[in-house]
Design a protein that fits this description.
The complex is a heterodimer of chains A (about 270) and B (about 300).
Chain A lengths: L5 E12 L4 E7 L1 H6 L5 E5 L10 E4 L2 E3 L4 E7 L3 H6 L7 E8 L10 E7 L3 H13 L3 E8 L8 H5 L4 E6 L6 E2 L2 H11 L4 E5 L2 H13 L5 E4 L15 E3 L6 E3 H4 L2 E3 L12
Parallel strand pairs in A: 8-9, 8-12, 9-10, 10-11, 12-13
Antiparallel strand pairs in A: 1-2, 1-7, 2-6, 3-4, 3-7, 5-6, 13-16, 14-15
Chain B lengths: L5 E3 L2 E3 L3 E3 L21 E3 L16 E4 L2 E4 L8 H13 L4 E6 L4 H12 L6 E5 L15 H14 L4 E4 L7 H11 L3 E4 L3 E4 L1 E2 L4 E2 L5 E5 L4 H14 L4 E4 L5 H10 L3 E4 L2 H4 L3 H15 L16
Parallel strand pairs in B: 3-16, 4-7, 7-8, 8-9, 9-10, 10-15, 15-16
Antiparallel strand pairs in B: 1-2, 5-6, 6-14, 11-14, 12-13
Helix pairs in contact in B: 2-3, 3-4, 4-5, 5-6, 6-8
Classes of the chains: A alpha/beta (about 270), B alpha/beta (about 300).
């Protein structure tokens, strides 16, 4: 958790819907842009009034310290995100951040990223920092269809390999991203796997991979949140083999797969 | 400059604005918003004697103008609280209320005794109402249990006691009177209302504990009624809480009979709201020519 969390306003610099039901938003917020680290997120509320009441959590995709901006990619899935579709340039939103534990572990040489759909929004910031530290990155992006592959160009420019998997075969392999991962790992060595998205479809394979002991798997976990700052203890995820809980907002969102139980309670 | 100070059992608070237990941890204050020192008092997340993990997730679910929670009082236990959390709370230099919950009369008394031995504690709030601990009956949902536990704690300690009551009863004025007669110095009205939601995609209750407590603006009229009705019957001060989001809501509570107010889930929505509420109360008093917040307590009562 950051030393200070900014809670206030941010200005919408730009918003575009690409593809449909995915909002790509740039916000001007000096303190959050300055303080954010990979692995962190913000709580955002773009409407006034109390229904819906809670802000929503979104991963920080990237920041720009020259323009004091941060980028979010938001999938429209419910009442709050539906309201965000109405955002226009120069609108003001309520925001808190940066939240979550910054990723500080870059003690490895190569990694494979497996991200499905909006899950790519969680990994880019981390992947870019890993790239600047000389870590070799292989990326597998998956989605229902080619249009829903998120951040492909940004990830391609820092990845030694970029493979895609789509449900309909419109890009790359037709089928699960975990199939592509399995095939890649059969022919290539890597130190770590980082995954986001895919929910219960990816989890069985990833769990088996972790428990095989051959390489550690890390998950970017999400959960229903109220405060996002560790006050309410709402976003609990069970610790593996322990009668206790982590908080996604305080101890995550990144967890090693074998630290947590049932991290895929919500899947959009 | 209106006088915002109030007294709860001879403990003077510099203003009547508090956070509700479990919604505001002073060590995680957003920078530059406002300082917890500005609050009339701070209060910890309810501590239990032994550590306990809290309820299985999902623990929260948004509802119209509010949310359900089945957090379940995750607690590091009394020893950890005394060693690690209490020193930080003392440093805030404002009134300190310690919230405790016991699962037996003996536990409640032991918790109260240990807390009253510590420096810097001004009041003890007895959490008598959480509906999440899988007990069919909470302390404050049973008149006999309520009288027994408050009497026992009253005998055990001299510190002022606040009884935080569950509204999930037929007549809260009855439980309030019982608490007063058993020795409570003040009342916190109200804890959450029992509620439930169904996740229609999974086709099961949304919360891991099936039901939970409803809080937020949706409950404000219900909680206000509890304060108004209880004010008519009791002589001890009431800390009013339930869906307070702004100074206007707070004023409603004072006029209904609250001596102080607490903000709960709205701290999640706007971490700076308590600062604005303190200011708003001050300006309301000034605008309408009241010299002290004490002057408006219960002023709405006509019948």
């Amino acid at each position: 958790m950051s030393e200070t969390i900014y809670a206030g306003d941010a200005r919408v610099v730009s918003v575009r819907e690409a593809p449909r039901d995915y909002l790509d938003i740039i916000l001007e917020c000096t303190q959050i842009a300055a303080d954010s680290e990979p692995g962190q997120f913000v709580m955002l509320k773009s409407w006034s009034g109390n229904d819906p009441i809670l802000p929503r959590p979104f991963d920080i995709v990237e920041t720009n310290k020259k323009t004091n901006t941060l980028r979010l990619i938001i999938k429209v899935v419910g009442r709050g995100t539906m309201l965000m579709k109405q955002l226009r340039q120069n609108d003001r939103v309520t925001i808190s951040g940066p939240l979550g534990k910054p990723i500080t572990d870059y003690n490895f040489n190569t990694m494979v990223i497996l991200a499905r759909g909006c899950g790519a929004a969680a990994v880019l910031f981390f992947a870019r920092k890993a790239f600047t530290k000389g870590i070799t990155i292989h990326t597998i992006l998956s989605a229902a269809t080619k249009q829903k592959l998120i951040l492909e160009n940004e990830l391609k420019s820092i990845s030694k390999t970029l493979l895609t998997a789509t449900d309909d075969g419109s890009s790359g392999y037709q089928g699960l991203g975990t199939d592509v991962l399995a095939e890649f790992l059969a022919k290539n060595n890597t130190d770590r796997v980082y995954s986001c998205g895919g929910g219960p479809f990816y989890y069985p394979y990833l769990e088996q991979l972790q428990s095989s002991g051959k390489l550690p798997v890390y998950l970017f976990v999400e959960n229903y949140m109220a405060c996002g700052t560790g006050h309410c203890h709402g976003c609990a995820v069970k610790k593996k083999h322990k009668e206790d809980y982590y908080l996604v907002c305080r101890d995550g969102p990144l967890f090693r797969l074998d630290e947590v139980e049932e991290p895929c309670l919500i899947y959009q | 400059m209106p006088d915002l100070s109030v007294e709860i059992a001879d403990v003077r608070l510099k203003n009547p604005v508090l956070p509700a237990s479990g919604t505001y941890e002073p060590k995680i204050v957003p920078g530059g918003v406002f300082s917890p020192r500005a609050l009339g008092a701070v209060i910890n997340k309810t501590v239990t004697l032994a550590p306990q993990p809290g309820n299985p997730p999902p623990r929260i679910w948004e509802t119209p103008c509010g949310m359900l929670n089945s957090i379940g009082i995750p607690s590091p236990g009394l020893e950890h609280f005394i060693t690690n959390d209490l020193p930080l709370l003392r440093k805030l230099n404002t009134r300190l209320i310690v919230s405790i919950a016991g699962f037996s009369v003996k536990e409640f008394s032991e918790l109260a005794e240990r807390i009253s031995e510590q420096d810097g504690v001004d009041l003890i709030e007895l959490n008598l109402s959480c509906p999440n601990l899988r007990k069919h009956t909470a302390w404050s949902q049973d008149i006999v249990l309520l009288k027994t536990v408050i009497s026992a704690v009253r005998k055990a300690v001299k510190l002022p006691l606040i009884a935080k009551l569950s509204p999930n009863v037929t007549d809260i004025t009855e439980t309030a009177l019982t608490a007063q007669d058993a020795g409570a110095d003040a009342l916190s009205l109200v804890n959450t209302f029992r509620g439930l939601a169904i996740d229609i995609r999974a086709r099961i209750p949304a919360l891991g504990s099936i039901s939970g407590g409803l809080s937020g603006p949706a409950i404000r009229p219900l909680a206000l009624y509890a304060v108004y009705a209880t004010f008519k019957k009791v002589g001890i001060p009431i800390i009013g809480m339930g869906g307070i989001t702004c100074w206007q809501d707070a004023i409603e509570y004072f006029l209904a009979g609250a001596t102080a107010i607490a903000v709960g889930m709205y701290n999640f929505v706007d971490p700076s709201c308590m600062g604005g509420i303190i200011q708003g109360i001050d300006e309301y008093l000034d605008t309408y020519g009241f010299s002290a917040v004490k002057d408006i307590i219960g002023l709405a009562h006509r019948d």
